[in-house]
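[worker-b] picked up task from shared queue
[worker-b] task type: protein-ligand structure
[worker-b] ligand name resolved to zinc ion; SMILES cross-checked against name lookup, match
[worker-b] sequence length check passed
[worker-b] input payload:
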Amino acid sequence: MTVLKQVKFDKINSVITEMLPLEVRELQPHEVRVATKFMGVCGSEIHVLHDGHPFAKPPMVPGHEVCVEVLEVGSAVTGIQVGDPAVLDPIMACMECPACKREQYNLCEPPQVAGFRAPGFGKSELVVPAHNVHVASKSIPMEQLALAEVIACGTHCVDRVPQENRGKVLIIGAGTIGLSVIQAAFIKNFKEIHVIEPDPGKRKLAEKYGAYATYAIGELPEDERFDAVIDVVSTQATLAQSLVQVRAGGTVVIMGVPSKPVELNLGPVQRFERDIRSSGMYVSKDWDVAVEWLKQGLFKTEDMITDVFAVEDADKAYQRAQEADSIKVLIKF
Ligand SMILES: [Zn+2]
Ligand SMILES: [Zn+2]
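[worker-b] inference finished, payload out:
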């Protein structure tokens, strides 16, 4: 391979695919060289493309959801072989701070995530630290493996709900991440999964993935109470609703990225021990869970991958990802 194919947001609202001469540098002992196979397009990248992201701005290389094949391993790397299929954790942890020492790389501040503050993964070949590489089973189709990041988000999120509140749960929002959270809750045996989602097609998918009941906006009775509410939207309206519909002693998990400050009525939260938690990305074990669920066929991917574009058509992939009926759009390298 002598050409590096690279997806680039060259300016605001513009995506190009660059062909560059491939520069091969020698690996450090703890590094791994990989060939990118598929990359998922994420909603957070669309915000970057439109210049609506707080710290990532074009021009830049996007990409944080990739599956790869291992090309070469550094001299000190163990457990990773040439030819292994793998997924890459995009969190470029400092490995020095108290959070990193606890192996909570998702809490390393400021977060260095590939495709945001750190260089994106949208290249045909990458060199990454070995601890960012999670080897997968060869039995998993590569295309499906590209969903591991989304699954890691889902499993981490439902683990934020304490065991005693895993009965009747309300999940607000059934986009890509919402559907992953629904599947994770189902796989982890939450008793009754209720879902609010405006799009009828996505409501149908939510039911297919184990939802007990689904509602369009405004359909859920206000006096219905839940052991836990997972808000994958996190606007003023949905967070206020979450606090109304969670029972006394229940848990609200903020999963969606709030785009601005919200005002909440904390009186009933304090008096009745309604706990507010949050879920931010994932930790190492979540990747192993994601890969295992794919291997066992527990996590369903068929309807979640709506489109696959060649890397040369990366601009079309980012266009398609902005249409309401797309779920996960992949770019094939
Ligand atoms: Zn993402
Ligand atoms: Zn750190």
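[worker-b] attaching auto-annotations
[worker-b] The radius of gyration is 20 Å.
[worker-b] releasing lock
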